[in-house]
Specification:
Blueprint: E1 7-11, E2 17-21, E3 29-31, H1 34-48, E4 51-54, E5 65-66
């Protein structure tokens, strides 16, 4: 079984937002509003236990979240 790829929410050049897998040519799903794309992307990342990576209109990463094997887990463990 192939490893699932991280989920990104990125601006679409023609308007709106796309939720897509890392390195994918096509979007998994297109949305008019970023909030809808983020909700869908988070659900997909949780289900597949991968990283969720939202981007801003400028393409920069904003507040990624890991729902699986976090490559950089926090050092301070909550007790």
């Amino acid at each position: 079984m192939s490893e699932k790829k991280d989920v990104h929410v990125v601006p679409n050049a023609e308007g709106g937002w796309d939720a897509k897998r890392e390195d994918a040519e096509r979007a998994s799903k297109h949305f008019d509003k970023k909030a809808d794309a983020v909700e869908y992307g988070k659900d997909l990342a949780r289900k597949d236990k991968v990283e969720f990576v939202p981007h801003g209109k400028d393409g920069k990463i904003q507040n990624p979240n890991s729902y699986g094997n976090d490559p950089n887990p926090p050092k301070d463990k909550k007790k």
